[in-house]
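User: I'm curious whether this sequence folds into something compact or stays loose and floppy. Could you predict its structure so I can see for myself?
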Amino acid sequence: MPAPPSPPPQEAPAPPGPRPFRALFLSDLHLGNPWCQARELARFLSFFSCDSLYLVGDIVDGWKARQRSRWPQSHQRVIQKLLQISQHTRICYITGNHDDFLDAFDGRRFGHIEICRRALHHTADGRRFSVLHGDEFDRVVKRHRWIARLGDRAYGVALGVNAGLGALRSWMGWEPWSLSDYLKHKVKDVVGFLSDFEAAVLRETARERSAGVICGHLHRPALKNMRSIVYANCGDWVESCSALAERPDGRLEILRWRDWSAALAPERPFEGEASPEEDPAVATFPLPPAMGGLGLS
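Assistant: Here's the prediction. I'll summarize afterward.
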């Protein structure tokens, strides 16, 4: 009796394509800061797509950019990717305290990128959200700027220590743990910073009669209901590598890129992605001509 025909060979599954959202919100990229996870950010921007993209402050780290005039190639690639996205997607760039040099361009457009201090976003289910960075509710940034800068330097040192601790904990088989994140939030919790910040943001949101607020600044992703108001924080791209997304039906969710990227085959890079060894190459950051006098070029 002849053997049954062998089943046709199964094709390998296609690599995952971009995941569409109605809107994406990213904050605290800190491009120009050596601790920015720019390579992962470029992968994120290639993997997800959206109708509207909100950059919710501290996108460019002007505090670091004033200290150095050349940028890693991976940071340049993120800028190029954002410019490419702006050709078919609305981008709203909301300034924060690290990129407040752009406050002078509030209300201006550069191509399809609009710069502003705050914005309003209407979800697909009809809710209105205030979108702002949140530094205006940080009493340290507003009243004691030198302390904020000192804290920024201390945070950088802690991130450096993190690298060594992370390698040691990985070698010993322990779970990842961030010293910088622990210290930052422990200190802020002790002084009541987080509760004061959230309360101030909620008061402003209630005054504007919005359904909720979308902000950044804290480097701590969050999505919760507080006194019938939705509080959403995008997180950051220094440690958490997170973003806020709106689905087509108006639902909001936190995206944690490490959870998504863990399922992707590392041997299949995204189009245009460079290998890590290429990152030491540097490039001058391309400011629009109107920004040439800001001391960053």
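Summary: The helical segments are 38-47, 62-65, 73-85, 139-143, 145-171, 179-190, 193-207, 257-261. The CA atoms of residues 44 and 261 lie 8 Å apart.
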